[in-house]
């Protein structure tokens, strides 16, 4: 039977990409926060499609000279070997370009993001794909029209004098996202996950997103 609401669902449905960078699986607070964000978004946008990119299970390769040299070449000059080198980057670029909403899980490890997330960022910032230069030399980001929710978790609780969550995660990720054209960025932060007796209501945090 044809669903009479199908046109409405088609209109509201979104492509949602959940990027995971915690190695902690079922124990991960950033994954649970990301899932709570998705639960809330699914209520707002019925019929949405969710894709998961787990950077810990499937590690992004580190940039090397072959990758960097290939990434600056014109499409027609790229050899088959170089195409293969850029394969991972091509795949994740297709994925993020297709997404309307991105949930970027960013647990704090040693005052910064997990190494897999840094490697992922290095693979998506690419000339001609996510950034380009206009005739007058102005640089523009190409991934406009997306919303990114940062799902940030840290074991400690920080004050204004020393705040690595803001300084090394929110500011760093926001700078990168703006660089590639994404300006609609919302941060959801859970601090103190390693404090004795820590509990959290993930759904409550996401209620008003
Ligand atoms: C190797 C390691 C390094 C960590 N470094 C920090 C840190 O620098 N600052 C902090 O507040 N918490 C730190 N933590 C605690 C994590 O931020 C905390 O466990 C958080 O919940 C991680 O997110 P996740 O649960 O999604 O993995 C560290 C934990 C581990 C295992």
From TrEMBL:
Which Pfam families does the UniProt record give? Flavodoxin_2 (PF02525)
Question: What's the stated role of this polypeptide?
Answer: Quinone reductase that provides resistance to thiol-specific stress caused by electrophilic quinones. Also exhibits azoreductase activity. Catalyzes the reductive cleavage of the azo bond in aromatic azo compounds to the corresponding amines.
Gene3D superfamilies to which the protein is assigned, alphabetical: 3.40.50.360
Q: What are the UniProt keywords, alphabetically? A: Flavoprotein, FMN, NAD, Oxidoreductase
Catalytic function, reaction form: N,N-dimethyl-1,4-phenylenediamine + anthranilate + 2 NAD(+) = 2-(4-dimethylaminophenyl)diazenylbenzoate + 2 NADH + 2 H(+); 2 a quinone + NADH + H(+) = 2 a 1,4-benzosemiquinone + NAD(+)
Q: Tell me the cofactors it needs.
A: FMN
**Where do the annotations place FMN binding?**
22, 28-30, 108-111, 153-156
Return the cofactor note field: Binds 1 FMN per subunit.
Give the protein family: Belongs to the azoreductase type 1 family.
The name under which this protein is listed is FMN dependent NADH:quinone oxidoreductase
Against InterPro entries, the record matches this protein to:
Flavodoxin_fold (IPR003680), Flavoprotein-like_sf (IPR029039), FMN-dep_NADH:Q_OxRdtase_AzoR1 (IPR050104), NADH:quinone_OxRdtase_FMN_depd (IPR023048)
**GO molecular function term, any single one:** oxidoreductase activity, acting on NAD(P)H as acceptor
| Source organism of this protein record | Pedobacter nyackensis
Subunit and interaction comment: Homodimer.
Question: What EC number is given for this enzyme?
Answer: 1.6.5.-, 1.7.1.17
* Flavodoxin-like fold domain boundaries: 14-195
Domain of life per record: Bacteria
């Amino acid at each position: 039977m044809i669903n009479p609401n199908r046109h409405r669902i088609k209109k509201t449905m979104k492509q949602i990409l959940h990027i995971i960078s915690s190695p902690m699986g079922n124990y991960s607070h950033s994954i649970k926060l990301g899932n709570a964000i998705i639960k809330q978004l699914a209520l707002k946008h019925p019929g949405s499609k969710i894709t998961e990119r787990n950077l810990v299970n499937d590690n992004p390769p580190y940039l090397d000279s072959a990758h960097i040299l290939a990434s600056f070449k014109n499409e027609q000059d790229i050899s088959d070997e170089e195409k293969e080198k850029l394969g991972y980057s091509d795949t994740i670029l297709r994925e993020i370009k297709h997404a309307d909403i991105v949930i970027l899980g960013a647990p704090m490890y040693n005052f910064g993001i997990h190494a897999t997330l840094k490697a992922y960022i290095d693979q998506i910032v690419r000339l001609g794909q996510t950034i380009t230069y206009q005739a007058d030399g102005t640089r523009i980001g190409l991934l406009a029209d997306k919303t990114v929710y940062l799902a940030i978790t840290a074991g400690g609780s920080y004050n204004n004098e020393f705040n690595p969550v803001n300084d090394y995660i929110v500011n760093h990720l926001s700078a990168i996202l703006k660089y590639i054209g994404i300006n609609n960025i919302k941060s959801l932060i859970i601090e103190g996950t390693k404090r004795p007796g820590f509990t959290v209501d993930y759904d409550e945090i996401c209620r008003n997103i």
